[in-house]
Amino acid sequence: MTRLGGPTSHTAIIARQLGIPCVVAATTLDQVVEGAMLLVDGTNGILTVGPDEQEARRLVEQDTALQTEIRAWRGPALTADGVHVQLLANVQDGAAARKASEGRQRA
């Protein structure tokens, strides 16, 4: 989490690429007490301080299932209006390029 930035900031892009939940521009972050339980929803940019533990577990399990489904998806790639598109990768270094290449070879 950061106090500054936005969805296209370097922090947000790298976190997204690495699959790390991230909330940027959390302007009230300094009001969170040290040691507080937090639930980070990086997709929607929501930080919940002191979440209900059962609800937090349910949401984490739900997200884990969704991420598994996303990783298993192999296409076809379509835009919302039905146009076929080629799937590519956003890479920043050699390791990310190798990982993207390995994924395409398995498809």
Instruction: Give me the Rg, rounded.
Output: 17 Å
Mean pLDDT: 84
Terminal-residue CA separation: 34 Å
Give the helix tally: 3
Q: Roughly what percent helix?
A: 25-40%
Outline:
globular
Strand order of the largest sheet: 1-2
Largest sheet: 2 strands, antiparallel
Could you name the ranges where pLDDT drops below 50 across 5 or more consecutive residues?
A: none
Q: Give me the strand/helix succession.
A: HEEHH
Question: Structural class, judged by helices and strands?
Answer: mainly alpha
Percentage of residues in strands: 5-15%
Number of beta-strand segments: 2
Descriptors:
107 residues; mainly alpha; two-stranded antiparallel ribbon; 3 helices
Describe the structure.
It contains 3 helices and 2 strands, in the order αββαα. It has helices spanning 10-18, 53-72, 94-106, and strands spanning 38-41, 46-49. The protein has a two-stranded antiparallel ribbon with strand order 1-2. The N and C termini lie far apart (34 Å).
